[in-house]
Q: What sequence folds into this?
């Protein structure tokens, strides 16, 4: 459900068509309906035959929230996230009321399942959850080249190249493993921002299951084949934006970042990234080099493909691609809508500052580039 004033003049023809064809309206509650007219912009459930790409990945939650956590995960959420099942929906309503009171013009989903993502990511701290929600939408506004017409079919070339995938089996802690292979990308292939688009869509899909919201994810980054052209292409300005989204602009818990097969030049790459990392996140970066034994102490062989000394079959890059491409209509409804921040007054200090400060970033990049050449 999206809380938004019913102003048809602010809705594009495309969005209006989607509204008429695939969208249902549903009131949140009588008290909320009195304050805020709500429109459900979620795509309707689609029956898919067995054996399609979605077979191994959990489906999106139902329109009306019903907890899908196992008793073990309920206990884990209580211990790690301060989530109390008996207060869960009360907390959601409290966050919803804050949004309606403090940001009445914000075009955002207000359904229970969506808001729970932000509460869990900030351990049920209402103020921090609201700030994360604002950062989430501010990131879209500040980086239009990433979020304009964002849907899986527009990044099929990234998925086909094998820049990223998700391993089909989670680790023993229930965390899905996002596998990045930046060496597969060459600057002449397509703009770097397309990689960011594919990464963001992957995160959006990964965060849908409640299990991921509680367990978090693990990143495995294989730097085989990364050279000077890839390392120097994004620059600190793009690096800062990507890190900002992952740390402060998206409701997902990144529990570990495992780097493998990193070349000497990675010291220069990490020098670009590290200034933007919070201390807690920086401590979660683990450099393994070519030591598979070190990797296996962090990610067991039972869930790794044979390329990384694992017991699974060869890495299938097409499996995750099918998961995303099967959800194209879902993402059209989620992202191809009017600006959610139109008419919203944001605090003076926000996470994303647009193009401001790019001159300083350029100066920083000139210094860091010399480090890259030195490492190379």
A:
């Amino acid at each position: 459900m999206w809380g938004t004033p019913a102003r048809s003049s602010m809705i594009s023809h495309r969005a209006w068509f989607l509204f008429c064809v695939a969208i249902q309206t549903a009131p949140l509650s009588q008290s909320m309906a009195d304050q805020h007219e709500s429109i459900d912009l979620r795509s309707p459930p689609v029956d898919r035959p067995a054996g399609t790409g979605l077979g191994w990945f959990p489906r999106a939650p139902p329109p009306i929230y019903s907890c899908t956590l196992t008793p073990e995960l309920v206990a884990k959420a209580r211990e790690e996230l301060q989530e109390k099942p008996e207060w869960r929906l009360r907390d959601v309503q409290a966050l919803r009321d804050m949004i309606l009171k403090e940001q009445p013009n914000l075009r955002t989903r207000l359904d229970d399942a969506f808001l729970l993502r932000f509460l869990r990511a900030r351990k049920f701290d209402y103020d921090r959850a609201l700030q994360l929600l604002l950062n989430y939408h501010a990131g879209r506004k500040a980086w239009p080249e990433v979020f304009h017409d964002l849907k899986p079919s527009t990044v099929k070339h990234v998925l086909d190249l094998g820049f990223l995938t998700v391993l089909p089996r989670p680790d023993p802690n229930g965390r899905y493993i996002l596998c990045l292979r930046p060496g597969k990308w060459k600057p002449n292939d397509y703009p770097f921002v397309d990689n960011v688009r594919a990464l963001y869509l992957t995160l959006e899909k990964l965060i849908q299951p409640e299990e991921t919201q509680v367990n978090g994810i693990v990143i495995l980054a294989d730097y085989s084949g990364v050279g000077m052209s890839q390392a120097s292409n994004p620059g600190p300005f793009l690096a800062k934006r990507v890190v900002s989204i992952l740390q402060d602009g998206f409701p997902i818990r990144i529990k570990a970042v495992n780097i493998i097969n990193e070349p000497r030049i990675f010291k220069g790459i990490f020098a670009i990234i590290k200034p933007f990392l919070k201390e807690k996140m920086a401590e979660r970066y683990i450099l393994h080099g070519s030591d598979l034994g070190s990797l296996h102490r962090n990610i067991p062989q039972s869930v790794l493909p044979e390329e990384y000394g694992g017991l699974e079959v060869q890495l299938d890059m097409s499996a995750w691609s099918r998961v995303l491409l099967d959800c194209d209509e879902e993402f059209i409804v989620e992202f191809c809508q009017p600006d959610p921040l139109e008419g919203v007054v944001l605090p003076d200090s926000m996470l994303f500052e647009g193009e401001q400060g790019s001159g300083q970033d350029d100066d920083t990049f000139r210094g860091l580039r010399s480090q890259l050449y030195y490492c190379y």
